[in-house]
Design goal:
The protein is an alpha/beta fold. It has two domains: 173 residues, 3-Layer(aba) Sandwich (Rossmann fold), CATH 3.40.50; 157 residues, N-(1-d-carboxylethyl)-l-norvaline Dehydrogenase, domain 2 (Orthogonal Bundle). It has 15 helices and twelve strands. The strands form two sheets. The chain has an eight-stranded mixed β-sheet, with helices on both faces. α7 packs across α12 and α13 packs antiparallel against α14.
Length: 350
């Protein structure tokens, strides 16, 4: 694999701290390093030990490749490294949001911009409540990152970073442009996050299938499962006045219909949607493989909570949530026809 040393960081460039550097955080932090940004990744001691023995290696489905040995100043498990950050990107799992916010509240100076690049809808709101002196912005990272081997992180699907528009983010934007991972500022982040969640509804289906994303999406039964979860969510979003925005080549309101097409037609019409690395899998699958709790409560669970807020139900998403929690304990995986029958039964019982 081609090897590239990290460009020298300018002492005058913004200091960007990636807090909670796992697969996604290491990939984003590494990309920023590849463009010469001043980056510190804060992660678990387990990863710090890996980087003592292995270089950080990044690849993507379009042929990008970068490799560098991280210094102790670039990866640490010391939370105080965030104390003089010009920007903090939070990439922890949603279950850890409160804990991380309480840690950051002790070290961040007033006015520090903080962007939540996490799954789900409610993380930025929770961060604001616990970090009242910070400039907290909702953010979105749409693509999949898989750890292929110790220290090697692979970006397997398309998409670019987004965050709520805030003047405090402007000084850091050139660092994202320089590394080829631009950060787009938006005025409609609620719609963006719900639209991303519509796509993330595939995470539990991929995790339950136990096959790579490309193989799963090539199976019409799995796609029909996804379409059911998406239609249910779109109906609730419409009732709640939440507009879907286009994050894929196919308009979001048409995605469920496209998912249900026969394989031969889906392959033709959704060619861009199938531009996925053959090895790519969802982060939820990775969590199940590692024996970790998943983020299903912040994906399908968000749909269930939206329904409950309007005195309605979301039986398909509720059932997927339960199946993933069951899988955390039993490790059962589902064939496409079996999962489809299970979700159809849940919908019929509504």
């Amino acid at each position: 694999m081609p090897s590239t040393n990290s460009p020298a960081s300018s002492s005058t460039s913004p200091r960007i701290v990636i807090f909670g550097a796992g697969s996604v955080g290491c990939y984003v932090g590494g990309r920023l390093l590849s463009g010469g940004a001043n980056v510190v990744m804060v992660g678990r001691p387990r990863l710090r030990q890996i980087f003592n023995d292995h270089p950080l290696v990044l690849t993507d489905y379009q042929g990008f490749s970068f490799e560098t040995w991280l210094t102790p100043n670039q990866f640490t498990d010391d939370a105080s490294a965030a104390a003089n950050a010009d920007l903090v990107l939070i990439t922890v799992k949603s279950a850890a949001t409160a804990e991380v916010a309480d840690i950051l509240a002790r070290v961040l100076p007033k006015g520090t911009p903080v962007v939540s690049l996490q799954n789900g809808i409610s993380n930025a709101e929770e961060l604001r409540a616990r970090l009242p002196n910070a400039r907290v912005c909702a953010g979105m990272i749409p693509f999949n990152v898989l750890q292929k081997s110790p220290g090697h992180f692979h970006h397997g699907t398309e998409g670019h970073l987004m965050a709520a528009r805030d003047d405090s983010l402007q000084p850091s934007l050139p660092a994202f442009e320089q590394c080829g991972l631009p950060l787009e500022l938006r005025d409609d982040m609620t719609s963006v996050m719900w639209s991303k969640l519509l796509l993330n509804l595939n995470n539990p289906i991929n995790a339950l299938s136990n096959v790579p994303l490309l193989e799963e999406l090539s199976d019409r039964n799995y796609r029909r499962c996804l379409a059911m979860a998406q239609r249910e969510t779109l109906e609730l979003m419409s009732q709640a006045g939440i507009e879907a925005v286009q994050l894929t080549p196919v308009p979001m309101h048409l995605v469920p219909s496209v998912m249900g097409l026969p394989n031969w037609l889906f392959t033709r019409l959704a060619k861009r949607m199938l531009e996925i690395d053959p090895i790519a899998r969802s982060s939820m699958w990775e969590d199940l493989e590692a024996g970790r709790a998943t983020e299903v409560d912040w994906i399908n669970g968000e749909v269930v909570r939206l329904a409950e807020s309007m005195n309605q139900s979301a039986p398909v998403n509720q059932r997927l949530t339960k199946l993933v929690h069951d899988c955390e304990n039993t490790r059962r995986r589902w064939a496409g026809d079996e999962l489809l029958e299970e979700l159809q039964a849940a919908r019929a019982s509504r």
